[in-house]
Structures are given as C-alpha cells and as structure tokens.
Design a protein that fits this description.
By secondary structure, the chain is an alpha+beta fold. The protein has a domain of 142 residues. The protein has six helices and eight strands, in the order αββββββαββαααα. The strands form two sheets. Strands 2, 3, 4, 5, 6 and 7 form a six-stranded mixed beta sheet that branches. Strands 1-8 form a two-stranded antiparallel sheet. The protein is elongated and about 85 Å long.
Length: 210
C-alpha cells in the first residue's frame, strides 16, 4: 500500500486503463449536457462467455454508444453486438449466434466517487478521464447468455445408448433392451446343473448299483 496514501487517508492513484473497450472522455469536458457518439468496431476480450456459449478469441464486436456528461460523471449508454459460438446443450453440436446487449452505466468523477460509500463495489470511476467498459460488457453479456443453448428448439438430443445424434439417425432408431428381471432368471438357469450333471433323481438307483 502507498505510504503517503495511508498517512493522508486518500486512495492510491490508479493507473490509466488500457484496452479496446476503454473510452477516452476528455473531449466531453465537465459541462453537463455535452454528448459524443461512439460507433466503432473493436476486438473483444477472449474471456467473455460461459461454458456453453462464448465470444470466440479475436472476435470483433460493434459498439454503438453515446457518452453524455452529467453532474456526477459520464453516462455511457447504447448497445454492444458480439458474435458468439458454443455447443448445443442437447446434442453437443457446434452453433453460432449474435449477442446484442444494452448498456447504461454511469462512470463517476473521482471527486464525486470519494463522497460515496467505499463498500459499494458496483461504482464505476473514471481514471484519468477514461472509462473501462470491459467489466460492464462482461457482466451484461454473460447475464444475457442462455444457460442451455440449443441448435434449434426441437433438437432431439443424443441417443442414451450409443450417443448418436437422434436428428441424424431418424425416429426409428432404437436398441434392443432386455428386462433386468428376465436377465436375473436367465442367470439362475445357467447356474442350475442339468441332465447327467444332476445325477440320479431316485436314491434307490444307487442302492441297486451297490
């Protein structure tokens, strides 16, 4: 921890954020009502998504945003469009989609944020007049993704016996299954000796041979 910051009770200085989703707001100034549109394409971070649906590494997203200066800071609103890829939760086939999320986030000026509770982790703060949208986009996109995506609503999934994709093998696909109760009886029959293995059934036959 910075010794000077600890003695004065102030927070240590943050480094200027960098990355494709960092927006420079210096052109707005601090005059409430100033507005600037941002329409651009950027390379999205590779860690966006879930186990079943995610943004492909190196994928390009489209930003259509508006930066607006307000008393507390800079309000960022608009949409982010991201190409997605993943796996069908039923048949595990690859699939692709396009995700569109709405953003509306207020980035506070540092002096305004200092007056707020330090326990509020959701407060976004401008650092050197730069707004880092990466965590905002990540939260919005991940919450919008389906937990169990499907290649189509009526996907039949996989055969539980052989793993074949049921939409490929057709409705007549099946496997012969024996009743486990009959299987147990069959096992008992195989263990029971028959014919000569059983020996004479009449105990008097043994006396005659003697």
């Amino acid at each position: 921890m910075n010794v000077t910051a600890a003695m004065t009770g102030s927070q240590p200085r943050r480094r200027t954020p960098k990355g494709p989703l960092v927006l420079d707001t210096r052109e707005l100034g601090r005059r409430p009502g100033s507005m600037r549109p941002v329409r651009t394409q950027v390379e999205l971070p590779a860690d966006l998504g879930t186990e079943m649906m995610w943004v492909a590494p190196g994928a390009t997203g489209t930003l259509d945003l508006r930066l607006e200066s307000v008393i507390e800071g800079v309000l960022v609103s608009g949409t982010v469009v991201a190409p997605l890829q993943g796996e069908c939760a039923r048949c595990l086939e690859g699939l692709s989609d396009v995700g569109t999320v709405e953003l509306r986030e207020l980035f506070y000026y540092p002096d305004r944020a200092a007056d707020m509770s330090q326990e509020d982790e959701d407060v976004r703060v401008l650092v050197d007049d730069h707004a880092d949208l990466a965590p905002v986009v990540r939260d919005a996109l991940v919450l919008d993704l389906p937990l169990s995506p499907t290649c189509r609503p009526d996907c039949a999934g996989l055969c539980v016996d052989c793993g074949a994709r049921l939409d490929d093998v057709g409705p007549d696909h099946s496997h012969a299954r024996s009743d486990p109760r009959w299987a147990a009886l069959s096992g008992l029959a195989q263990d029971t000796p028959t014919g000569a293995e059983q020996g004479p059934l009449d105990p008097d036959e043994n006396k005659e041979k003697e």
